[in-house]
Amino acid sequence: MADSRALPPGRIVHKGRGATFDPHNRFAPSVSVEEPDGWWQEHAPLSLATEVREEPSKSALSWNGSPDLSFDRSLNPYRGCEHGCIYCFARPSHAYWDMSPGLDFETRLIARTGMLDHLREELAKPGYVCRPINLSGNTDCYQPIEAKYRTTRRLLAFLLECRHPVTLVTKGSLVLRDLGLLKQMAEHRLVRVLVSLTSLDSDLKRTLEPRAASPKARLKVIRELSAAGVPVGVLISPVIPGLTDHEIERLIEAARGAGARTASWMLLRLPREVAPLFEEWLVAHYPERADKVMSLIRQCRGGKTNEAAFGKRFRGEGVFVDMIEQRFKRASRQWGMQPRAEQGLNTRDFKPPRAQGDLFD
Predict the structure, then answer these.
(1) Terminus of the chain with fewer CB atoms < 10 Å: N or C?
(2) Could you read off the pLDDT of 42-63 as tens digits, one per residue?
(3) How far from 142 is each of 2, 177, 211, CA to CA, in Å?
(4) What are phi and psi of 282, to 5 degrees?
């Protein structure tokens, strides 16, 4: 099959990065294309440094009305994500900041400042109704730059002070830095953590999710959170047909053994620029499987690489998806996993903060 496929001329695999190129920013008024002209050109470096710029926040909470999501509000401390997961559905959002969803997304990051002040103001509004906040709905709040900026930790500490519930999804081991804080929140039924687990294959993880925590480290996160009394579940996401779907049973078994109590799954999504990025990643790392994987993806997406409709975008449809669902349910029953639950978090003890201006009243 695809052994003869190769990366386009001039493309290289950058060490520690997921994307192999920068797709055109769809909002940019012009397009530039590199063409070999016979003149000597300096080779692009194999490794790319991470750049971070700070951006003052205009607000804290992001709101959504999606019927597919279990939360209607989220906090997103960072734009872009150094984890570099090639499949990340958030990549297209980087175009809004005049950057590419490709290498820019994982190397040119934005740290939002002033979020705590805005959150205090927003929670203090008279009409605010307390429901769980998701940290974070777009990019991982425990990506490596959190070690320096500590925005996630400050937000969690403030939410604990206000007795405001939060749900958290991560594939970063840095979450264990805040174990004591999360334990306190759990004692008041204010937190649930989902650990995203894609594969137990460390070699696959190194290229699929180059700077995220290893499978072993994520299982340790589940184990230590569970031992501390923090409710923790596993999110098997994304399930990639022809590449990771064969691991569903082993992933559930491993997560249950580490202490996870709930499990859910999502099918691979390839919105906008993610589709060509993912397909080129396949060609670079798994050329012998590329055609098969893309064919299965299209079978699950009505002949397309992506389906954005509510009710279909996270699960897909068709025979292959039905088989995944049956296997997932059977394995969940076997290992005593419960469905993902957002109910039960404590909203009754919420204490609205005083608006910052009130300090001088």
Answers:
(1) C
(2) 555 667 999 999 999 999 999 9
(3) 37, 10, 12
(4) -60, -45
